[in-house]
Fold this sequence. Notes:
CATH class: Alpha Beta
Number of domains: 1
Number of strands: 4
Bound molecules: zinc ion
Amino acid sequence: MDLKDLYxxxxxxxxxxxxxxxxxxxxDAHAEGHNPLCGDxxxxxxxxxxxxxxxxxxxxxxCAISTASASLMTEAVKGRDKAAIKELYDRIHVLLTEPxxxxxxxxxxxxxxxxxxxxxxxxKCATLCWHxxxxxxxxxxxxxxxxx
Length: 148
Ligand code: ZN
């Protein structure tokens, strides 16, 4: 099995069985995101402990990339503080937008999204959850769209 098969399996697995899926009771913040180009919609809920995300859940309807990306994101950011999340997102953005960017070993399973860089139209599917997370971190009650 080569790396591409492995990455595809991670995406399919997280699409079929999204982790941390469903509304979070007693959340401190939430935001909604929409990617009109593909029709992806999702809501992200957060619970904080100080500056850290103690719990995160999401719910939504979208393509396999948007669902898998959100599922992988919730696993990756739980327990991290805002500065660490911003730093992680910066590395994900490079992975998603620069074809042939070397996958950073520290990205773990998120590296599975690297194949998206070959399909520029799908990049917004993969980044929607991160924009939505950011809106929730900013305590913005407004819905975010990838087309603004
Ligand atoms: Zn999509």
